[in-house]
Amino acid sequence: MQIDINLDKNSYKVYIDELRRLKFNGKVAVITNSKVGGLYLAEILSLIEADEKYTITIPDGEEYKNLATIENILEQLFVSRLDRSSTIIALGGGVVSDMSGFVASIYERGIDFITIPTTLLAQVDASVGGKTGVNNKFGKNLIGSFYQPKAVYCESRFLKTLPKREFAAGIAEAIKMAVMFDEKFFEFFEKCDVQNQHDLTKIIQRCVELKAMIVSQDEREKGLRAVLNYGHTFAHVIENELNYKGLLHGEAVAVGMNMANKLALNLGLLSVRDVDRIENLLIKFNLPTTYKIKDEYAFYDAFTLDKKSENSVIKFILPNGIGANLIKNDISKEQVIEVLRLFK
Ligand SMILES: NC(=O)c1ccc[n+]([C@@H]2O[C@H](COP(=O)([O-])OP(=O)(O)OC[C@H]3O[C@@H](n4cnc5c(N)ncnc54)[C@H](O)[C@@H]3O)[C@@H](O)[C@H]2O)c1
Ligand SMILES: [Zn+2]
Q1: Which of 98, 135, 146 best tests ligand 1's pocket when mutated (most atoms within 8 Å of CB)?
Q2: Any idea what job this protein has (predicted)?
Q3: Average pLDDT of the residues in 210-232
């Protein structure tokens, strides 16, 4: 199946379970990490027809998503003499695709790249939309560019080797899409079986369709795209408090969605029943929904450090019933503190 991402001259297609041959006119460099490379690199290389094929293997882990790794990749690209007609292929999760996209955007002022996302999170979220980048000591994803791939190939079979927690972390982002945009999709989630290939493909497809709809309306996150940060305002504080250890990003988002839901409940946007339905769905996928806040005032102050809070106005993205959303920037500190106290 194919889904169009409509962005004028930057348009491309996401292919789901359709990876056959990959044909190129110039040279190709596949960027992967040690773990994913060990699993799928040989197969991918065998599918590629190109003048020359190179492989760049980077270390596995978010801690390597930095400018030092970018330098290292660039160096290898220059040694292999890739040029403007060459293509970069990202084979891996969000870390590999964010860095590969960034490299592609700056190598000789930009060369083509395609992604083959191998985590659920990358398939349902990171692979679509063209955000690329790396972290530095000031924070996550602070250096980067908007740069669209030429094509994305999501293969659901690659998810079979994904560790259970990583899989669940991807599910959290998919549930986020359902709560924000699509009640029917949420109901499908409640009864689906992700072990079933058909159901899993449907989840990937629906998330890509929804993200395509959002990104084509708001490529540079000026408005609608911000809705994808549901749960993230809280999650970023949790991740920061935990020093990015202990909880995976998607797990922190699951907790963050539950926190946002309690706020939505107090504001009359969500019923008790719907708060419970969302929490039960997260629990169905073994996702955490609680976190022990030590100091609710410190937690609140940390919101303003988030790069998405402009001029210290804290934007909360909340469900407005299941399948709809609302961006609120006028919630009083007291109302938020009251919710944070529920997590003490
Ligand atoms: N660009 C965007 O729009 C966007 C959106 C969301 C997240 N992100 C970024 O994505 C990153 C997180 O991505 P992620 O969750 O994919 O993490 P990841 O890339 O670190 O992958 C998670 C782990 O799974 C392993 N792995 C990958 N595919 C596998 C497979 N098929 N089988 C077995 N193991 C496999 C990886 O080697 C890694 O150890 C973060 O850096 C985040 O900032 C970007
Ligand atoms: Zn996220």
Answers
A1: 98
A2: Catalyzes the conversion of 3-deoxy-D-arabino-heptulosonate 7-phosphate (DAHP) to dehydroquinate (DHQ).
A3: 89
Contact between residue 317 and residue 233 where contact means Cβ atoms under 8 Å apart: yes
Which residues form the domain of 152?
2-161
> pLDDT (tens digit, 9 = 90+) per residue, 104-133?
999 999 999 999 999 999 999 998 999 999
Strand partners, 30: 55, 89
Which two three-digit tokens encode residue 228? 């994808």
Spell out the residues 6+ positions from residue 168 whose beta carbon is closer than 8 angstroms to its own: 250, 251, 285, 286, 287
Q: What are 43's two structure tokens?
A: 């197969």
Buried b or exposed e, range 167-187, using 16+ CB within 10 angstroms: bbbbbbbbbbbbbbbbeebbe
Q: What is the DSSP string of 235-260?
A: HHHHHHHTTT-SS-HHHHHHHHHHHH
| Residue whose CB lies within 8 A of the most ligand 1 atoms, among 119, 124, 167, 173, for a mutation test | 119
Number of domains comprising the chain: 2
